[in-house]
Amino acid sequence: MAPWTTPSSKETLDRWCFVYIFGALYYMTDRGANIRMGQYLFAVFYLVTLLLVFRIYHRTQKVPPYVFFFVCCASYRIHSIFVLRLFNDPVAMMLLFASVNLLLDGRWTLGCALYSLAVSVKMNVLLFAPGLLFLLLWEFGLQGTLLRLSLCAAIQVLLGLPFLLENPVGYVSRAFDLGRQFLFKWTVSWRFLPEEVFLSRYFHLGLLGVHLLTLLLFTLFRWRRSGESIMALLKDPSKRSHPEKLTSDQIISILFTSNFIGMCFSRSLHYQFYVWYFHTLPYLLWSGGVKKLAHLLRVLILGLIELSWNTYPSTVYSSAALHVCHFIILLLLWLAPPASVRSVDKAKRP
Hints:
Blueprint: H1 16-28, H2 35-60, H3 67-73, H4 76-84, H5 89-104, H6 108-121, H7 129-166, H8 168-175, H9 195-198, H10 201-223, E1 244-245, H11 248-264, H12 281-286, H13 295-310, H14 316-335, E2 342-343
Antiparallel strand pairs: 1-2
């Protein structure tokens, strides 16, 4: 394994918080020499992530208990990402799930702050951003949303200040390199395409367009409250005709669906990206709208997804199977009935 990355490293890094966290881990492992200690630390990250995920699932109680065996024990790839590879992806997702827990507890400002920290570790957390934006507008209206988005932006600036002062243009262009080209040999999701299509900018723009269109459709027809215009979200909640309080199920469903849509239409999925949505898959499957879909079929879909991510190198069949499973889950989410809401007395709104 390569030595730990330090804050003074000249390597291209994902985000600035990554530098601070892995800089601390570098010194906690005798400057990267004590590999076993590093694995112990990531094992702790793994256990903390599981506790945070289980607390989220406890709030909805939609997933049968036996499914948690799959979450804990049945994924070699997830264990490898956490404890063998020591990627920064698990650290970002641990912070993300901590943020979701805070949102469920009604601690929106602190949850947004922790979400910003997760983004500063790995940019994949931005896939949750459309859902989070919708939830903030629902809960606080435009003014309250802008205040919390300003907090998120301030945290990003504060964390990156040492690097921004040194080389602002170079650092921001590398940290937010949205045009980075992925290597075909590592793709899990698009192996059945010719390499020239996989590398095509038109293909990337097409995926982006479908991604945005799918988010728009879910926003207008699945997430939006019935009987109200989408523009009503911009109003102060106390001035809406039918103010409603978000439920735990709505918060989780919207956030997890937002991320899953991004995974479906990603330019490429590499093996460490599995952790980006692995722990959300049981909820997405068991909260779907097809009541007659047998539990065994849902477990089979989880197994096929696991098999696809554990096939190395990926094949035409493994990547095609992954997309078929993704399409089934997306269809289930589209058919799912809207989560119930709680009416709120205007006089009691803060």
